[in-house]
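Technical note accompanying the year-one report. For the benefit of new consortium partners, we illustrate the data format agreed upon in the data management plan: each record pairs a sequence with a structure-token string. No post-processing was applied to the example shown here.
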Amino acid sequence: MMADRVEFACEIDDSVPTTRDTLLVALEKTHRDVTGLWQRLGADEFFTLPADRGWSPAGNLVHLVGALTPVTMALKLPRFVPWLLFGRPSKPSRAFVELRDAYLGKLGQGATAGRFAAQRRPPPANPIAARDALVARWQPAVPKLCAALRRWDDAALDRYRLPHPILGKLSVREMLYFTVYHLRHHAEIVAARFPRAN
């Protein structure tokens, strides 16, 4: 699901994030920017399905909440669990830009969200209530991830791995790079379809 890149709010500088603390800053800023985008969409726009096989803004938000949940859960586990399940990284973590480009390359080759894909559904009978309920599910998702990340030090982000459905096993740092970019990517898709919301 590719879209032309557009700017909404402030684009993340490709030179950051690099450390746990800059990841936290990037996640918190992205959460504010993305939340602002959802809030600028009218309730009807929120459930508008694009003409292509893409998702509505609501579908994008469902997808993002679904993608954040397993990462947050993994960061809350005792460290030996990901080590036993997924092993240790055998090479240094890639930079943010490298990870982003690898993800976009896979999308360009036809990779899909698979089990994390949002369902294309007709608008609900009460779009305002449905939008408010979905935004209420979104609001704590990134803060919960940030709270879990604060339990990790910088070095540990490179010592453990987590599985990604498209990119394979990633260091925790790489998974967090992906997460920051993924949030922006989907917001940019929505912003491109609804320029008035920018």
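Partners are asked to follow this layout when depositing records. The first helix runs from residue 20 to 40.
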